[in-house]
Amino acid sequence: MAHVYINRVACAVGTTGIGTVTFGSPVASNFIAPASASPAPSDGDTVTYILLDGNNIEIGRGTLGGSLTTMTRDTVEVSLIAGTVGTSKLSLSGAAVVRFMVSAADYGNFLTKTGDASQLTGAVDQVARDMAGSALAYAMASNDAASILGPVGAFRLSDDFETNTLNVVTGGAYVAASDWYANDTIRYTETSTTDSGTSGYGSFTLTLDRAWAVNNEEIITDLGVRAAVAGDYTLQIVQRTSAGNYTVVASVVLTHTGGGGFEYARLASPYTVPASGDYHVAVHRVGSLGTNSRSTAGNRAVSTVASAAAVGGTYAGLTEDSNIVVPVAARRVGGNNVNFRPVATTISADPDDVLGYFAILPINFATIGTNVLIDFSIDGGTTWAAAAVETLGALGATGEIMFRALADVSGQTGTSLLYRLTSTTDANFNYTRCVGVVPLY
């Protein structure tokens, strides 16, 4: 039997649980059931389907049977259940809709067994990941909008930013390599004193500069090291509790390319330095630090400890003297305040509300709906209505999140639809796509 593609199939599903689906009536007069297709498929043919049930989604492959009245759910490519992406089957409520579709797997079986494309790395794999993410985002938006509109029409202002298409980009920049808009900026940087030379560190594996402390109450997102030797370095914020004794409070591993320049690694989450106490940046390299970059001579602590301590762990009995250290740095990367706007699109006059779907990758200090705001206008940007923003769920394993924005525009008059994304208070994020905007009448 064949894997078949059938246009315009969308049927109600009264089935409950995780078993075989029985096709009900088409959801509208412009949709069909599988048995009405021409040319008709056969029992045993396979199809790619999407099941929509409330805010839950299942995309997979199934086999037709029962004289084209049923479909087994053989393989789940990706599902979204209660906001979590995975490969589990939906437990159907009895009020679902099934549609036939083309998925990323139909374009060459690119998806890995995880179903979220997180293991894809090559050029073709990147295409597959983008297709999977786009399909999931559109499915999430279509399903959610259908609960309000019935059959979903065309989304407006949809854009995956393969080119620099926004009309207004203030406070941010288009990143062509990633197909997104970014607003990151360095708010604070401080380094230990350095010079241009190198020195041998013998058997020492860890150094820190006691003459330079990280500012109290500063927020740190990245740690850095200036290294002449390529390799893995563990960079840590440590608190000096007494002479020679230190406690690790934050840690990250950086793979440095060598060459004597500063390179940085991002902490898993920003670290706020307490209001009191002495906090320093330590650098550890397994084996030894070798002949490496150096600071000017000063107060330091050094050790030959074999392994870097974990967060919460300690270094006891470090040697404290006046000599060189490997130069280190701490910085805070935040976000410029932005204004992102597309070119306006023409709509029928005077909708009551506007519903939009946006994919955003929050990075540091960004809370979508609080310090990253979404507004809509139907008069070309003369007046704006603030949207209430909800999180719909993650799109795969890259950190990209789907947000739903709904605004009352009944106080405006016009036919020129726009949205804008603005930010405040250091919010750092990547704007990855506008899935679509729908005026509601």
Describe it.
This protein is mostly beta strands and 441 residues long. The protein contains one helix and 34 strands. The strands form seven sheets. It has a seven-stranded antiparallel sheet with strand order 23-18-17-20-15-22-24, with no helix packed on it. A hairpin with a 6-residue loop joins β31 and β32 (401-408). The chain starts with 9 loop residues before the first strand and ends with a strand. The model is unreliable at 107-127 (pLDDT under 50).
Strand and helix layout:
Elements: E1 10-13, E2 16-17, E3 21-26, E4 46-53, E5 56-65, E6 70-81, E7 84-86, E8 92-93, E9 96-100, H1 123-149, E10 168-170, E11 173-175, E12 180-182, E13 184-191, E14 194-200, E15 206-209, E16 219-227, E17 231-242, E18 245-256, E19 261-272, E20 278-284, E21 291-295, E22 298-303, E23 314-315, E24 319-323, E25 328-335, E26 339-341, E27 345-346, E28 353-364, E29 372-377, E30 385-386, E31 388-394, E32 401-408, E33 416-423, E34 428-440
